[in-house]
Specification:
Blueprint: H1 5-14, E1 18-22, H2 23-30, H3 37-41, E2 50-56, E3 61-66
Antiparallel strand pairs: 1-3, 2-3
Length: 68
């Protein structure tokens, strides 16, 4: 079990091919602050049929892409 499981489940349930979430939205969904460990945990998302695309430090967003 991962600390980001609530986020991964949300992304899988979303079903959209490509979308962005703000850091604030991610923190609300995951129930914890986003930190550098996100870069390690993001590999888990592949099991849910998605991958992390661009992480924008300027816009404070993370792009998610469905694996085809």
């Amino acid at each position: 079990m991962s600390k980001y499981d609530p986020l991964w489940n949300y992304i899988k349930a979303n079903g959209t091919d490509n979308f962005k979430l703000t850091y604030a939205e991610i923190e609300k969904i995951a129930g914890l602050p986003i930190d550098h460990s996100f870069l390690t945990y993001k590999k888990e998302l592949l099991e849910y049929g998605y991958k992390v695309g661009k992480i924008s430090m300027k816009e404070h967003t993370v792009a998610f892409e469905k694996i085809q």
